[in-house]
Amino acid sequence: MRKLCVVLATGVVLAASGVTAHAAGSALPRPLATSANDLGFKLFSQLAAKSPRGNVLISPTSIGLAMDMVFDASRGATRRQIASVLGLQGVSTDQEREAARSLMADLAGSPDSAQLNVAASFWTDLDAPIQPAFTQAMQQYYDADAQSLDFSSPSAMQTINAWVSKATQGKIPKIVESIPPTTIAYLINAVYFKGQWASPFQKVATAPHSFSGAGGPMTVQMMHQASHLGYFANKQVQVVQLPYGSPGQGRFAMSVILPRPHVSLQHVIAGLTPGKWAKWTANREALFVALGLPRFSFKYSTDLVPYLAALGIRRAFDQYKANLTGMCTMRCSVNSVVHKTFIHVDEKGTIAAAATSVSGAIFAVSGFQVKMLVDRPFLIAISDEQTGSILFLGAVRAPSG
Predict the structure, then answer these.
(1) Residue 44 and residue 103 in one domain
(2) Which of 382, 357, 392 is nearest to 119 (CA)?
(3) Collapsing DSSP states into helix, strand and coil, what is residue 8?
(4) Do 26 and 155 fall into the same domain?
(5) Residues 381 and 260 in one domain
(6) How far apart are CA 318 and CA 3, in angstroms?
(7) Structural domain range at position 94
(8) What is the pLDDT of residues 74-90, one digit of tens each?
(9) Within this chain, do residues 117 and 242 fall inside the same structural domain, yes or no?
(10) Can you tell me the distance from the alpha carbon of 332 to that of 86, in angstroms, rounded to the nearest whole number?
């Protein structure tokens, strides 16, 4: 049995084991961005628990789009399992494809100084048993670069990795370590983000500061600024929003979520839900915040298969039960879902990349100042205010940079 490897930079690997038509219908029960955010929160909770002392970073947008592609390929009980986890019950292939095309279009470009690139590609072996209609759908709805390569040639892996490197501006230079003889295809999704703060930190204000890391006390380079920012707080967390681009006009922002001293980071992560995220964002106030934020930079990599299986997507990974005939002319199963990310945050802004295979006016409030010193493990979320997509979600336990 040959295997189809879908790399969604998150990378998804499929293993080889009639296409059912679906009528187009009304809009999805909920946007794909919401579906991707929900999946991202669930996966992030598992991954953060698995690495209680390490930094974790995922792209819900990249993972969500990758799993949308697998949903597109799935049929029967496999499709029902994926639909249940993604919240796409009753959604037809045509509906999902139109929603994906709409989301890809909305994520394409930005009028402000922040840069967001979302790219997809579909690589197949020369004789791979792939449905031509699926390849056409990937090109039409995901704007995927579709190419056929000789996987037995060393140049095939070099070509695929070169595409990933270019799509992520060199931040993720490699997604494929080797191409096993059973592999018949790679489906790759990449996200690259670069944005300058609307209100940059001044380098002269950056100084060494103690940080209570998960592995013990450490010294970090703490950036400082005092400005009007979107702010929310309750008994569990402090949340501040740092916009990118022109002041008052940018569509992208980073949210920093700092647990209160008596609350563990893992407790906050375990309680993350779309509803809680919506409450935090909807109830922000424009306050004058004296913020201290560590400079940090790190890479992260994981195979998402066991975590997706824990959420209920199992048949897709079972070579005997998987039904992905929407993609293959023979039975296929998902073999691996590789997800790699990179982030660098400094005084100027943020550069972040992922490979999977997912503002408003600032009002001055005089006479009141909120203090927020991020000197212990914290969360970050880079979001698109226009689509509601959470582009990156991370736990920073040991900042460096």
Answers:
(1) yes
(2) 357
(3) coil
(4) yes
(5) yes
(6) 12
(7) 10-196+298-342
(8) 899 999 999 999 999 98
(9) no
(10) 20
